[in-house]
Specification:
By secondary structure, the chain is of the alpha+beta class. The protein is built from seven helices and seven strands; from the N terminus they run H-E-H-H-H-H-E-E-E-H-E-H-E-E.
Length: 174
């Protein structure tokens, strides 16, 4: 029986007070997963650029919505398992900026639960995302959850670093 079958999954909208939790999760998950894909130097650069408290607060101010995913037997006994960030582009079109699940809790249904929650919570008709072209584990996860590759793009993020990504799309409602 998987972890998500023994425990309930809860979703909490993030406020400024919750940003240290998001930062801690990002640091742990990124350092577990990304060095083999993009190298530790780029991981450190991107964590500092996107996940310091000032940057996270600015993302909230600009309208990005963050959600924590937590698991437990009740709301009084929760363990933070991951987080997501989405942005509304109107007419049911959304962009998934971030979706991360603790590496020890992956393949338990928590990521799918988080996507399903976001789609339902915001009545999404389309959900787009960017994913590193070498991140095969994530790409396959997105394929299993109804996303298709829409395009290929490279983004210069400064200091000689690039994000070499697929843009993926999930049509949530015809």
């Amino acid at each position: 029986m998987g972890y998500s079958q023994r425990f309930m999954q809860f979703f909490l909208e993030v406020t400024n007070e919750d940003l240290p939790i998001v930062r801690e999760l990002a640091q742990r998950i990124w350092n577990d997963h990304y060095p083999a894909i993009i190298g530790q130097e780029q991981v450190d650069y991107m964590l500092e650029r996107m996940y310091d408290l000032e940057s996270l607060s600015l993302q909230l101010q600009k309208g990005d919505l963050f959600y924590l995913s937590a698991v437990g037997e009740s709301e009084d006994n929760l363990v933070y398992a991951g987080f997501a960030s989405v942005k509304d582009f109107g007419d049911g079109r959304w962009f998934l900026n971030k979706l991360y699940v603790d590496t020890d809790l992956q393949r338990t249904g928590l990521g799918r639960g988080l996507i399903d929650f976001l789609i339902e919570e915001h009545n999404m008709s389309e959900l787009r995302l960017q994913v590193n072209r070498q991140n095969y584990k994530a790409i396959n996860f997105y394929f299993r959850n109804g996303f298709v590759i829409e395009s290929v793009a490279d983004f210069d993020i400064g200091d000689g670093y690039f994000m070499n990504d697929f843009i993926m799309l999930k049509v949530c409602k015809p």
